[in-house]
Design a protein that fits this description.
Layout: H1 2-99, H2 103-117, E1 125-130, H3 134-149, E2 153-158, E3 164-169, E4 176-179, H4 180-200
Length: 201
């Protein structure tokens, strides 16, 4: 009887031990699968993060390169323009200033321009001349020019006109400007392309 009891106890023990081992192995296998899945998922996420970081770094590098190139080009263009402006102004400023402070040159210029206004009949003209040349130009404007053109000429003098003159019909409401500034701009526009080519090819 005792032997049978022992056999039954051993059998129950062995069956329980076997079942426990089996369940333990199943749990272990399941945990291993879950751990492998978690590791694979973590690796995939890590790879995505690294890929995104690389892509972002590349975009930043490309944008930075582009910005640096653009800034360099703009700086170079601005420097070229400054050099060109400096050279052109040196070439024109003195020449224009000297010419437009010459009373004889201005008289000839006024005659040529005034004659164009009077080609279709007599027109009374209004002149604005530099105050600095009043002494040389006032008699010419008031007497000689009227005789040459056969029309009335009204001349005024202004400190705002440093060289050259402005001319227009007395009742026309407009002036044509032949001042130092307008000549400088006009000559500069013609000189700029040539100067640019000479300086920078």
């Amino acid at each position: 009887m005792q032997n049978k009891l022992q056999e039954l106890t051993d059998k129950l023990y062995n069956e329980g031990l076997s079942k426990g081992r089996q369940e333990g192995e199943e749990l272990l296998a399941k945990a291993k699968v879950q751990a492998d899945e978690m590791i694979a998922k973590a690796q995939a996420e890590a790879e995505q993060i690294v890929a995104a970081a690389r892509k972002q770094a590349e975009e930043i590098r490309t944008k930075t390169d582009s910005d640096i190139r653009m800034a360099a080009n703009q700086s170079l263009a601005a420097t070229k323009k400054d050099i060109e402006t400096l050279v052109v102004s040196k070439m024109t400023d003195e020449a224009v200033k000297t010419a437009l402070k010459s009373a004889d040159f201005i008289k000839d210029l006024i005659k040529s321009v005034a004659e164009k206004f009077t080609t279709e009949g007599p027109v009374d003209l209004n002149l604005i001349l530099p105050e600095s040349l009043r002494k040389d130009l006032e008699p010419f404007a008031q007497k000689e020019l009227s005789k040459i053109l056969g029309t009335g000429v009204e001349a005024s003098f202004s400190k705002k006109v440093s060289g050259g003159f402005q001319i227009g019909p007395k009742d026309g409401g407009y002036f044509v400007s032949f001042t130092e500034d307008t000549f400088r701009q006009l000559i500069s526009e013609y000189l700029r392309p040539t100067t640019k080519k000479l300086l920078f090819g």
